[in-house]
Structure formats: structure tokens, C-alpha cells
Amino acid sequence: MKTCKGVLKLVTVAAAMAATALTATGQEKYGKTLNLGIGVGYFNYIGRPVPFFSANYEFDVARQFTLAPFVGFASYRSNNYWKNNGQNNRYYYHESVVPLGVKGTYYFDRILGANANWDFYLAASAGIAIHNVTWDDGYYGDKDVYRGRSPLYLDLHIGTEYHFAKRAGIFADLSTGVSTVGLAIHGR
């Protein structure tokens, strides 16, 4: 039920952003942009931040609104103990997480009166997270690291980009699940 409410909020925010963008006249170009980022993923069931790499490509949909297919990658190795015949045994598993989906972004540059070198935005991402877990030999305990987690991937973002050249910029993207800094390459 909690996931359904989260999806409903995400859809409502995305619809409001799209409606605002579609009712505006003219079209400022933010699309044709490849964003490559590195940062930190905060996956709830892991219990700690892990390194994260991301890539997306933005397309203009309406004035100040883009959609961007995205892919990400996070990987980590656990360090845990389990009891077997009264002894504590150390075990490890390696997990890789690959989120895939679409990110909708609304730019607030006009509303904020931002200088042409700056972009400011709010965004929402939705998709799936593909997980792969590999266990060490010799571990025979509970191997369910997900504890019933859904593969649904949802994320809310706030960010900024500084254009240091006509076709390049650096960005900071803070979010509820993955935060990154990186390079934006514009094809305008």
C-alpha cells in the first residue's frame, strides 16, 4: 500500500509538471543532452550508501520539460556473520543493482530569472531495478537480501547545472535514492 501511495504521488507530480510545460508557449531547448554522473546510492535494504554511476539522454518534450531514458549501476560486497553449529562464521555476497527507466525534468530557469550559464530543475524518475546477487561458497543460511522489496524504482530529484562551455556543463543532482555529480554534454 505504501508503494501505491508513492507511485500515485510520483504520477501526480509528473502530470502537473507536464501540464505546466505543455501550456507554455515557445520552446527553450534543454534536450539533446547526455548526462554522465558518479555519486552515491541510498538503497534502503543495504543500510549504507554505495558508489553509483549513471547515464541519461534528455529529449525536449515541451517548453522547460524533458524526458530522459536512464541507466544506472551500483555494486557492493557485504560483510556479515551467521551462526552454524554454535560458531560465528563470516560470509560475503556481492550485489549489483542496475536501475532502468525514464526521468522527467522540469526546468525553473525562467521563473527564477537564472543567468544563461545556469539551469535549475525538479525531476522524477520511474523504472525498474534489476538485481544480481552472488554468494560465497559455504554459506547455507537465508539468501533473501531483498526481504520482499519490489523491483519498482522511484526517485525524486532537485538539481542544478553550470554551463562552463557552449556544449558542456557540470551538474549536481540530489535525490531521494541516488545523488550524483557529473558532466553534461549538449548537442544543441
Question: Would you give an account of this structure?
Answer:
- With 188 residues, the protein is mainly β.
- The protein has one domain: Porin, CATH 2.40.160.20.
- The protein is built from 2 helices and 10 strands, in the order αββββββαββββ.
- The protein has helices spanning 2-23, 109-112, and strands at residues 33-41, 50-62, 65-77, 80-84, 87-91, 93-107, 118-135, 152-165, 168-175, 178-186.
- The strands form 2 sheets. An 8-stranded antiparallel β-barrel has the order 1-2-3-6-7-8-9-10. The chain has a two-stranded antiparallel ribbon with strand order 4-5.
- The chain starts with a helix and ends with a strand.
- The model is unreliable at 11-27 (pLDDT under 50).
Topology of helices and strands:
Elements: H1 2-23, E1 33-41, E2 50-62, E3 65-77, E4 80-84, E5 87-91, E6 93-107, H2 109-112, E7 118-135, E8 152-165, E9 168-175, E10 178-186
Antiparallel strand pairs: 1-2, 1-10, 2-3, 3-6, 4-5, 6-7, 7-8, 8-9, 9-10
